[in-house]
Amino acid sequence: MDISVSLMGKVALVTGSTSGIGLAIARVLAKNGADVALNGFASPDELADIITSINKETGRKALHFPHDLSNLAEASELVSAVTSEFGKVDILVNNAGAQYVAGIEEFPDEQWERLLAVNLTAAFATTRAVWSQMRDRGWGRIVNTASTLAFQGEARKAGYVSAKHGVVGLTREVALEGARLGITCNAICPGWVLTPMAAKQVEAKAVELKISFEDAAQKFVEADMPTGRFVDPSEIAAGVLFLCSDAAKSITGVALPIDGGILVTGTRLV
Hints:
single chain; Rossmann fold
């Protein structure tokens, strides 16, 4: 998917951007002119490959910041570190995510705390940290990755569902505070995207049903997606790109499903 938007002169911080949806977002923002700050876990060789490919493909500056977003202090410090290297942050994409699947009686305390920290608290911390500079410049774009599970529930995902509901609430509140400051805040709500995190769930289902990964993936798609296919990360990135553009300056506080029609059917969600 090729959408052209001019982000020349902008700096984008994308959390959880070393793979999957976040990497697709970082690439498309760089392709459209933004310098990009990457954050997430990867090996040194993988990081070098990612940064080199972004540099070669887009000509934009790209750097990695290793801050652990499960730690509130590190999440808060991330914006300062990026600002020190790039001079500012114009676009903040809170995409980092974590998942754990267990029944409510067996759900471990540490996993509950980790999921809330990574999926929700980190977005609050980075938003709070970037706010003053966006306010002073009179321009800012904040996009939070939620989920179709920000609207409904799914058994055995108490931490994830709770956090993603919270992400939409945070998005709406921040949108109100930024409405007269030139700062927009929106959420994207993906359906099934075959990211590494989703692949683990497909693998677990394959083991449970004693079928191949491909067959299990198709069962997920057939059960949930009216389109009958996974959403491609590039489609999520295109939605984020639009929300970061001046064409979307009057769109704020929105939770945008990019879900292949899941929410139309009301079936099991991700």
